[in-house]
Amino acid sequence: MKINQDLGDLTLDLVNISSVSQDEKAIADLVQESLSNLNHLTVTRIANSVVAQTNFGNSKRVVIAGHLDTVPANNNFPGKKTDTDITGLGSVDMKSGIAVALKLAHELTKSNFDITYLFYESEEIETKFNGLELITKQNKDLLNCDFAILMEPTNGIIEVGCQGSLRFEVSAKGNRAHSARWWNGENAIHALSPILEVINSYESREPVIDGYKFREGLQAVKINGGVAGNVVPDLVTMTINHRFAPDTTAKVAEENMRKLFNNFDFKLMDAASAAPTGLNNELIKNFVQAIATPIAPKFGWTDVARFAAAGIPAINFGPGDPNLAHHPSEAVKIKQIEDVYSSLKKWLSN
């Protein structure tokens, strides 16, 4: 993998390395290989995550982090390059951010900060598989820093904080019977109607926090049920995703959902805390002033929350429109990749 090519071509090369969650070995190998021979970096490999650190002797350390994995393809792999865009799976989320970080890792042989570059696995799935979780368990000192920048897609602006996320299952039960004699059974799928009514009548909170409006949500994302084409099903399970604002803890969010679905079997699958905006922190204030780009709240969950939980100020700043993340028409502007790179290089060099 050639790092000394333009950022558009480097992003395309990364897009065309398949790295669906839990299948990141190939891309991790190439990232490790591209960094291991650089004299100014110390490289550590943990599973399919790669950590590269400078040791310039500066008083402050900055983390620049990006995840290597993507969601499964949706007729958008491999990627393509036009005069203006890189298209394809992961171009937005977040191979373009990885390209920026790799380029910085190669070119910044001195800085006013020490820098830790984190290229980690399995961010797109359950927390227990997240590469930062594995690094924390095996060598948490690798994550020590004074400030963290997550290269999540933000359309080239700064997005502060992040909303938390709950994934849970709600089940409806019935009685199995032959579909020709349906009156002898109770259809569990039909019993989903009240669950859908709860979801459809849910009124999303839109709290304003530190001057920025967050927007909560409640969405059914998966249904499992059915036995055979001639059987009345006796069990169906719906997976639901709840996004909650930074003024709510994961515990309170879970309590709220249990109350909302108190007439149904409820099973929590995964919980990720929200993160505050951090705009009162001096390091974030300085970064915002230096980058001089608009600010918005982060509606999705990112690992900013993980750093915030450890008391480390963190923000989201990367190329790519987050509205196109996980979209079959995923595409990122080449100029935006270059602009994010230039802004970070200038800040790290100044």
TrEMBL record:
Q: Does the keyword Metal-binding apply?
A: yes
Any GO MF annotation of the entry: acetylornithine deacetylase activity
The Gene Ontology biological process terms listed for this entry are: L-arginine biosynthetic process; lysine biosynthetic process via diaminopimelate
Q: Which SUPFAM superfamilies match?
A: Bacterial exopeptidase dimerisation domain (SSF55031), Zn-dependent exopeptidases (SSF53187)
| All copies of domain Peptidase M20 dimerisation, residue ranges | 163-263
Q: Which UniProt keywords apply?
A: Hydrolase, Metal-binding
Protein's recorded name: Unannotated protein
